[in-house]
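Quick note —
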Amino acid sequence: MTANLPGLRDIHLPPSPGWWPPAPGWWVLAGLLLVATLWIARRLLRMRLRHRRIRDALRAYDAALANADAASTRIAAASECLRRAAKLHKPSAALLEGDAWLRFLDGDDPEKPFSHGDGRLLRDGGFRRSVDEDIAPALALARARFVHLLEHADA
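Predicted structure written out below.
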């Protein structure tokens, strides 16, 4: 049949499309990936700065306790550091006194370790001339609460 039509040639296909410029969908995907990458980088940076701030605060806490020579001054130093952390967590909490301060330190803990436990020493232990009790449990509670307050600080 092609012999009867002498002037016709075979069909020519158009060239395949190039890779540039990409289709609009690829631009949207690239934009979304860029936004996601920036968001993740920002979150990682904030998390790293937060961990550094907590680590530095723990060093200062440990140094304050190491510089205190007597048991009552160690309790006073722990209480002062707790007040500073409480001020970061909730500014009005640093002004609390007595049992209200201990209830704040208890937080959501159902065992109430500051109001009814070893942490009760933080209420007035720093003002005593001498502390006859074992201060290690109270200092361990204070350090744990210090870390908790820093982790949940708004700053």
